[in-house]
Design brief:
This protein is of the alpha+beta class. Helix content is about 65%, strand content about 10%.
């Protein structure tokens, strides 16, 4: 008969399996509305940073301890030398001592722990935003690859019609072998486009599976949605820069690490103050005299390098604080550059996307279908079909790539200016 522990373990495993299955079903297919939440739910880096926050919480609890050490209880006894031993000649004593901090070390330790907690909390946010950025990039890659695949499927029928038409016209001597070779070469190129689109789509789905915390070798995810960029406000660059410096999670991490370094230096300076030890004692000597009293002891600070003055540790902490301050300034400069580049890219990609009007794309798609019908009905010369088809194919491929790059530019701009991508997107 199974034990109770075995039953509980089996029940826990079953519940976990159901929960994982429900979570997986909620993220299949992957859409614009659930991509970020699904990526964050399975992100190992985020879970690792949260464990780091739990470790910092442990240090915060340790820093709140009132006493620097536990009380010391001492008991001693002895007999006088050179005299006869008896119960009356037995000496003994008992004392209780407690070390006390008077330099504000406890407050400094709590300050350090609080600064470390703030820094770790911001690292969690920074990791979540990086995860959301990667997931959105993989999502848009998959959508673009899917659209290329749909176009390649349409072009596959055109390639077949082109090849069939060229072969039939060659058999009756209506086209030259050169034109037939060119037509077959173009048919091969269109077939290559289909194979390349299939490869890129499978690779994009594998990257998306990995971004969602799944094993990409087991099953591919299904994606739904349109290849449309994130909704971003059209703000001046300087306004975006000032907002990025205040909102970027990595900038907040740098500021918090700078504060941690300064707090640690202050703690080491406070540690130079000697801690007194107060004691109370009670003893009996061999004259039957009993004495009760109090005591005070202080460590004697000696100059370095004879004694421990924390001079080296303080110098190290000060240097690390200055280094953290310089890193903060460097990051602010890099943020300005990153925002500027992202804004310029976004503006250029918008203008590029505007070149492809819906009417021109619709006409190009209709023209592709019309060329295929004309080839199947042998109503168009091969040379005219090749010239028209190549220009239309390049137009449609360029339009998909332009939309793809616009979506990626929107993700990069949102990340650069410090948008909270981990909370969802529009």
């Amino acid at each position: 008969m199974p034990s109770r522990h075995s039953c509980l373990t089996a029940a826990a495993i079953a519940v976990a399996a159901v929960a994982l299955s429900a979570r997986a079903s909620a993220c299949d297919p992957v859409t614009r509305s659930n991509i970020v939440a699904c990526a964050l739910a399975q992100n190992i880096e985020g879970r690792s940073e949260r464990e780091g926050l739990a470790a910092v919480d442990g240090r915060r609890r340790a820093a709140k301890t009132l006493l620097p050490s536990n009380p010391t209880l001492s008991v001693n006894s002895g007999l006088p030398i050179g005299y006869g031993a008896s119960s009356s000649s037995l000496t003994w004593g008992v004392s209780l001592a407690q070390e006390v901090e008077i330099g504000g070390q406890r407050g400094r330790r709590m300050d350090v722990a609080g600064a470390e907690h703030s820094a770790q909390s911001r690292r969690i946010v920074a990791t979540a935003r990086a995860t959301a950025r990667g997931a959105l990039t993989a999502y848009f890659d998959a959508l673009a690859a899917r659209e290329r695949g749909a176009l390649a499927n349409r072009l596959g029928a055109l390639a077949q019609a082109l090849n069939t038409y060229a072969r039939s016209r060659l058999e009756v001597g209506l086209v030259s072998p050169v034109e037939t070779s060119v037509a077959r070469a173009e048919a091969v190129r269109l077939s290559q486009l289909a194979l390349e689109a299939e490869l890129r789509f499978e690779e994009a789905r594998a990257r998306l599976s990995s971004a969602l915390g799944r094993d990409p070798t087991l099953a591919s995810v299904e994606v739904e949605g349109a290849l449309e960029p994130l909704l971003l406000a059209d703000l001046p660059t300087e306004q975006l820069v000032s907002g990025a410096i205040a909102e970027r999670a990595d900038a907040q991490v740098a500021n918090a690490e700078n504060e941690v370094a300064q707090r640690r230096a202050a703690l080491l300076r406070a540690a130079r103050v000697p801690n007194p030890t107060f004691s109370v004692y009670y003893r009996k000597d061999w004259f039957e005299e009993r004495v009760a009293g109090i005591g005070l002891s202080l460590p004697l600070p000696l100059p370095s390098p004879v004694g421990r003055t924390f001079a080296g540790e303080i110098g190290e902490a000060d240097a690390l604080a200055r280094r953290a301050s310089l890193e903060t300034h460097r990051l602010r400069r890099d943020v300005r550059l990153e925002v500027l580049r992202a804004k310029l890219t976004w503006d250029v990609r918008k203008r590029e996307h505007a070149l492809f009007t819906p009417e021109s794309i619709s006409q190009a798609e209709s023209a592709i279908d019309a060329i295929g019908e004309a080839l199947r009905g042998q109503k168009i010369p091969i040379r005219d079909a090749l010239l028209s088809e190549q220009a239309l194919v390049e137009l449609l491929l360029s339009q998909i790539e332009a939309r793809h790059q616009l979506c990626l530019a929107s993700v990069e701009l949102a990340h650069a200016v410090g948008f909270a991508l981990e909370r969802g997107i529009q």
